[in-house]
Amino acid sequence: MGKRDNRVAYMNLIAMARSRGPIQSSGPMIQDYLNRPRPTWEELKEQLEKKKKGSKALAEFEEKMNENWKKELEKHREKLLSGSESSSKKRQRKKKEKKKSGRYSSSSSSSSDSSSSSSDSEDEDKRQGKRKKKKKSRSHKSSESSMSETESDNKDSLKKKKKSKDSTEKEKVRAKKKKSSEE
């Protein structure tokens, strides 16, 4: 029984690759990239100047777009202005109609030049008249409900008094703090 041979064959990878010959690659090689045609310094300066100036076609296109945009803006402004004028006319018509209806409804305003403030006061008078009617209908309720309402009113007034006392006390404390901080 002899010793087992555990030697391994050495393979020189570089030598094997050279023996196969040159590899045909599908894409460009590094040498192709380095040997590419390059512009001279003067040509490069000319290209940069052209880029700074911009193309004529682009400049013309931008001018046309600006003109179109200005036209659209003018149209839109006209629409808005005409719309605001028509809305102001509508408001004036509504005011005139209110004035006319106010003249017929109330006997107090018989003058031909009634202002919007007088019509507003008339509207308020009507509202107050409605409120008085509602209060009168409430008074027909039983005396028990009126008693409970007066009690709740008394409670509310007490709460308000307490709140006002608390607020005055807080103000006094603040004033004392300010004086002590100033000293």
UniProtKB/TrEMBL annotation:
Residues 103-119 have a biased composition (Low complexity). InterPro entries: Fam133. Residues 89-102, 128-140, 173-183 have a biased composition (Basic residues). Residues 69-80 have a biased composition (Basic and acidic residues). This is Protein FAM133B. Residues 69-183 are annotated as: Disordered. Belongs to the FAM133 family.
